Every structure is written in structure tokens, then in C-alpha cells.
Amino acid sequence: MKPALIWDFDGVLVYTPHEKAWREATRKYGGDIDHEFYVKYVSGKPRYEGAHNILTLTGIYEKYGANSEEEKERLLKEFAEFKNKILNELIDKGEYEVNWGAIEFLLNAKKSGILNALASASRNASKLASRIIVNDKRLVELFDVNVSGLASTKKEVFRLAIEELKRRFSPTCFIIIEDAPAGVKAGKELGSLVLGYERDTTLEEADMRFRDFKELNPSVIFELCKEGKI
């Protein structure tokens, strides 16, 4: 039996300042969003989709007189790039936190022969994972497969991870670890088992929900695969 874990990055392995960057960008453009809005309309969604939701629902399109599709597309790209600029500046200042509980579970999983794939739709994930050192190795080097940034949606990046794991290792089952409702939904649509990390969001659609990585161990993963819950 050879299980494979497919890891989301932001909010699972590392707490990155994505929400702060979106909120600062929104305020700069004359709008405002709170945490509930971020979770419902932005978190786990493709960058342009999240940006479009903000511009639409906070009235920024209207405020900037973006009425035509061309005007909206121009403002959308400008806004999304501005948010990314803020995000990179925050990361460069060290405004992120490593989830060492998740890292410990990752290391234990590797020791038990469980495969691991890093699968974030964010292009920033690999860059940041290369900065973080774990036992004299870069975090990104702990993964058997890394497809982060190679697709723009959660569903497609998870699909890429599954395909690459199959091509190289032939795992017997796939388990996705996610913290956002959109990511849980994407994993379920692919027919995978999804572990929902409920740090600050309820993930009712997840197959198994947990609030602390201490609740997980390699035996749990092997048992889930053995029971055929994939």
C-alpha cells in the first residue's frame, strides 16, 4: 500500500499574508472586505476570480466607471497585480508563519513511506517553500512532486499532482489536505479523499475534519486507504 498526500500550501503548511494583501489592495481601491468575505469569495479561488468577486461585490468596478468588458478586464488585471505586489512585499518582510505541526506530520509521513506532493495554485508557493529550512533542507525539497503554480485553479493543480504521482510512483490512493471550502470542493470533484484542516473555517464537505495536526499520524492515513475511502 502506497498512499499519497497532496498538500495545499497557504493556510496549511504556511500561514501567508494573502488575506492581508487582498484587504490592503481593496482599501487602496476604495473598498473594504472582512474575514468572512475573504473566506467565502476569495480564499482558495483563482486569483482573477477572487479579484473579480471583490471588484464586483464591493462596488469598485462601478466606482471606477468600468462598465465595458474591456474596462473591467483592465481594472481586474491592474488590481490583481497590485495585490500580488503587496503580497511579495509582505513576504519579503517576513510576514508569514510556518505551521511546524504540519511539517512534523509531513516528516513522519515521509518516514512511513507515504508520498507527498505540493499542489498550490499560487505561483508564490514554490518561492516561499524554497526559503523555509527544515532539518538542513528547503521545505520544497521534502516533496516527491511539486506542481505548484502550474495551473490556475485548485482543481487543475490537484489533477496535475495526481497525474504526476501516478506517472512516477503509482500510489494506491490519494488524499488531499485543504483548509478552504473551494479546495475541499475541488478535491471531492476529482474523487479524492479530502482532509479538512479547520483552523478557522468549518469544512463540512471534507471526509475527515481536524483542527490540529497532532490529530493525524501515518497510521490514520494507511487506515483510510485500507478502508477504500478514496
Automatic annotation (TrEMBL):
The keyword Membrane does not apply. Its cofactor is Mg(2+). InterPro entries: Beta-PGM-like, HAD-like_sf, HAD-SF_hydro_IA, HAD_sf, PGP-like_dom2. GO terms for molecular function: catalytic activity; metal ion binding. It comes from the Archaea. The keyword Coiled coil does not apply. Keywords: Carbohydrate metabolism, Magnesium, Metal-binding. It holds the Pfam family Hydrolase. NCBIfam families: HAD-SF-IA-v3. Belongs to the HAD-like hydrolase superfamily. This is Beta-phosphoglucomutase.
